[in-house]
Amino acid sequence: MAWVYLLIAGVLEVVWAFTMKQSHGFTNLKYSAITLVAMIASFGLLSVAMRTLPLGTAYTIWTGIGAVGAFVVGITVLGEQLSALRMLAAVLIVSGLVLMKLSAE
Q1: Keyword Oxidoreductase: yes or no (predicted)?
Q2: What average pLDDT is seen over the chain?
């Protein structure tokens, strides 16, 4: 169950990163509120996952999901540039996440 909590926490990290961008420096109340709620939920679920998962594994997976997820949202929703180097960086992050998951078993 810890892995499920960690996955949800990572998705919520993507949500709060996106809504923080949409809040325009916390000047948009709706997006600011969503950001804060998603942050609290993400940190809460991360802490629950860390009860059983090693710190390094849990934190790495959480930040990796957030980084790659924000990268994908930036490209698909916000129209950010996709380059070969950015794509390679995302592939390397995902590779690291897979290795971290495999090493935790």
Answers
A1: no
A2: 94
